[in-house]
User: What shape does this take?
Amino acid sequence: QSVLTQPPSASGTPGQRVTISCSGGTSNIEKHNINWYQQLPGTAPKLLIYGSSQRPSGVPDRFSGSKSGTSGSLAISGLQSEDEADYYCAAWDDSLDAWLFGGGTKLTVL
Amino acid sequence: EVQLLESGGGLVQPGESLRLTCEASGFNLRDDWMSWVRQAPGKGLEWVACINGDGSKKHYLDSVKGRFTVSVSRDNTKNSLYLQMNGLRVEDTAVYFCARDGGGGWYSDYWGQGTLVAVSS
Assistant: This one.
């Protein structure tokens, strides 16, 4: 069981805005930034957001991240069919001395 | 261009060993932290281990401590990361990805394509 909690699924129609939450605790998200990864079917994960809100070059500005207290969220605006993927949050945990991943959220574009 | 290529996966029986290799190109992995992350069939991502560039600092997932060892090549002509896996269990079955941890080790910005480890009797 993941210590970082994400909803197992999310959905939206093209053009909509969707958000995916990531809930943690005082030893991880409250102290450290969140990273978000996108995994398209059958491929390796790709870094989508780092430092809670920074986008690597090449990631569209439709993707944004935020953090407050012990939780964070990923927002995708102007939803497109190619955004259909699994999304994972991750954060370092000081108590475990380990990286934690959320359980993942499967995004469906209806 | 940064590239990571894993190899060494395969089918083994419980209790056996495997060594995974991640060959890096486009950067010197001794300048960065590196991680191993696995994904069991149909499941989510699970971080396994990470190591700093000179190999002096390592961290492991609790369930692999004492069984898995992460290392970087001591041969300066090789730019490789390793994961020695001993005492393999059925629950270790997964695709294993290596990743470069940029930003001083704070995020995995480049990933390999993964290598499948299957543990079954």
Summary: Chain B has a mean pLDDT of 96. Chain B is about 0% helix and 50% strand. The interface with chain A takes residues 35, 37, 44-47, 50, 59-62, 97, 99, 102-103, 106-109, 111-114 of chain B (CB under 8 Å). The two ends of chain B are 40 Å apart (CA to CA).
